[in-house]
Amino acid sequence: MASIPNTRLEQVVDRFDEVEARMGATTDSDEIVALSKEHADLKPVADQAKLLLDLRAELKDAEAMMNGADKDMAELAADEFYEIKERLPALEKEVQLLLIPKDVDDKADIVLEVRAGTGGDEAALFAGDLFRMYSRYAQLQGWKVEVISISEGDVGGYKEIIATISGDGVFGRLKWESGVHRVQRVPETESGGRIHTSAATVAVLPAPENIEIEVRQEDIRIDTMRSSGAGGQHVNTTDSAVRITHLPTGIVTTSSEKSQHVNRDKAMEQLKIRLYEREREEKDSARAEARKDQIGSGDRSQKVRTYNFPENRVSDHRINLTLYALDKIIAGDKLEEVITSLIAEDQARKLAAMDENA
């Protein structure tokens, strides 16, 4: 790992000091909000950059004293020198990780879409398992889950379920879940005990706080329909569910709560989120190109993970990770171990790229 130049560390510290000084001087509310956000983002990096600069200076001083005429001071300086030298690599790596460019949407809330793929009823049941896994994981993280729309499977589970998950840094952790998830298990309806393979797709879309997407009225068609609950029972007698079709792109969003007004707002919000993601991918050509080599590319055609029930095994194919703890992972209690491994691998690749470009 290449050493971070002092000039780079000083740039971070100088910018942090500049932001802090400006915060104390400005009275513009919009600028205060922007500066406060930048201050919060910079503080952990600046604190560690200052520490690294200080340790490097102390190391240099200790080395000079080691070579001085005073033998007693030289011995003390030697102890300090080797102690600092032992601390530096871990701190260097920590600062390197903090300096890795962040995805602009990492702190965003998300829209989670889980759909049954190949495998019929078993695929719908698996989609239900996945959604419960994410719901439990969200609960453990202190996040909020709100279901937007549901299409239930004939024997349980979901043909499709869409929900929002809000909290601190949701997209940054769950973006790795996009793709095709494959399950291998013996269905309850299988009398011969044969292992059945089916799949479900997961899409994780960022939901930024302020989505500046213009939707022209002439570009959308709004349909109302009757809301249905579990078992096909009508929730009410009015056509309250709303479906919005964006004609230029063919994107369709729905919401089926009791209030038609609320449904219009929610369906429009989901439309803007999907249009934002579309625009985000189209405009950022560099990111789109990089996706080919990155884990968690978000490509829904990519088989990202296999859940093998007979072996209690989960394999993530992007990083060759295999864990024999399927029961705990599918319950959501050990999903963090998979996500942490994916993040660590992504960070390692980015650090390697930074070294190459240094």
From TrEMBL:
Picking any one GO molecular function of the record gives: translation release factor activity, codon specific
InterPro entries in alphabetical order: PCRF, Pep_chain_release_fac_I, Pep_chain_release_fac_I_sf, Prokaryotic/Mito_RF, RF-1
Name all Prokaryotic-type class I peptide chain release factors domain ranges.
226-242
The UniProt entry, under Gene3D superfamilies, shows:
3.30.160.20, 3.30.70.1660, 6.10.140.1950
A cellular component term from Gene Ontology for this protein is: cytosol
Coiled-coil stretches, from where to where? 45-79
User: What's one Pfam family the UniProt record gives for this protein?
Assistant: RF-1
Question: Which PROSITE patterns does the record cross-reference, listed alphabetically?
Answer: RF_PROK_I
Report the protein's function.
Peptide chain release factor 1 directs the termination of translation in response to the peptide chain termination codons UAG and UAA.
* The protein's name in its UniProt record: Peptide chain release factor 1
Q: Which organism is it from?
A: Henriciella barbarensis
Question: What high-level taxonomic lineage is stated for the organism?
Answer: Bacteria, Pseudomonadati, Pseudomonadota, Alphaproteobacteria, Hyphomonadales
Q: Name the encoding gene, please.
A: prfA
